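Friendly challenge for the regulars: who can give me the structure tokens for this chain first? No prize, just bragging rights.
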Amino acid sequence: MFHPLPIFVGLRYVRTRRQGFFVSFISWVSMLGVCVGVAALITIISVMNGFEGELRSRLVALTAHASLAAPPAAMADWTRLVDRASAVPGVAGAAPYADVQAMAGREGRLQPVLMHGIDPAAERRVSSIEQHLQEGSLDDLQAGARNVVIGRVLSWQLGADVGDQLTVMVPGADLLSSGGRPKLQTFTVTGIFEVGLQDHDGSLALIALDDAVALIGHGAVPSGLRLRFDDVMAAPERGRAVAAAIGGGTTVRDWTQEHAAYFRAIRIEKTMMSLILMLVVAVAAFNIVAALVMVVNEKRSDIAILRTLGLARSSVLGVFFTQGLVIGAVGTLLGLGLGLLIAYNVSDIVPVLERLFRFHVMDPSVYYITEIPSEPRAGQVATITLLAFLLTVLATIYPALRGAATEPAEALRYE
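First reply, four minutes later:
Bragging rights claimed.
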């Protein structure tokens, strides 16, 4: 088969065993460094994507995809508002809610809580909280029954279990002005949920919508509506559409706004991890520079002979460029394969390592997530692979130029 001469010679230099041990060693280390760097980048970014997705699903389990706030006059007829919001294209469901800041107490223990009033039938259309119930049912939250479903952490903090009673204290403004005493009501724990987030499991309590409105005080109305869309990633656009359709001072905050701090922190972590791990690839690229410079020095007489036989400088450049590209391409492709293999099987690999070395990566007593999630994304994988290969290409330029600058007479003088 015909090969252009620079490519043929470059491939021979890659395969030859006659070059010094140290040069071969540096070449293999360079290739391995690129492989490890690319594999680590793909694996870690995929795992962080998985954690981001897991966090998103847990956050929207209780807060839905967006919340709508409207003037009290509009919220007084919230059923009509639900119908109008549900009619907007892309809205999968709408449900009223009422939030009350309170203190919950039992047997001398006090904890600040957010009493979140819901309508059980409507809530099923906007959140997946029922999937996270450990005990009880949302159907127990009937108006006037004064039942409550609390988070697992809150139940530990208060020492409360299903069937126990909690005293809820709400600082009502009308009562404080008249007597300085808060409003007190007793609720019975009928269920316990566990979402896996401290903010929810340690400070949230679900009660019937009418009970929450009664806690707020005379003439109170629900706080707003929770919305669920057909596409969670399109929540900002869907939210603006709902606000525009209803109008009248209505505002909509989607999950990307309500939980912006969480996802901003994840983005910063992903960026920093990418930069740190890309340094591994950069170090491997410097090793490619060192390896090729040593090859150039070792092959000076070969270059001189080829130049004497009429090989152009550009062809000599192609010889060493080919060698560097092969090292970089093989390392990058091996890293791509290894990274995808680990990323798609990390949930199976980690338990094996845990049993082998007798340790827990995700200790169940500390973390709510016991399995490491992973979500490789084609765009990110392609970007990582391309950047790694470009680094190796840049690393090849200097040694190739140095080889092309070899003067035949100077190189053969002492041969």
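The first strand starts at residue 66 and ends at 69. The CA atoms of residues 76 and 221 lie 6 Å apart. Your move, everyone else.
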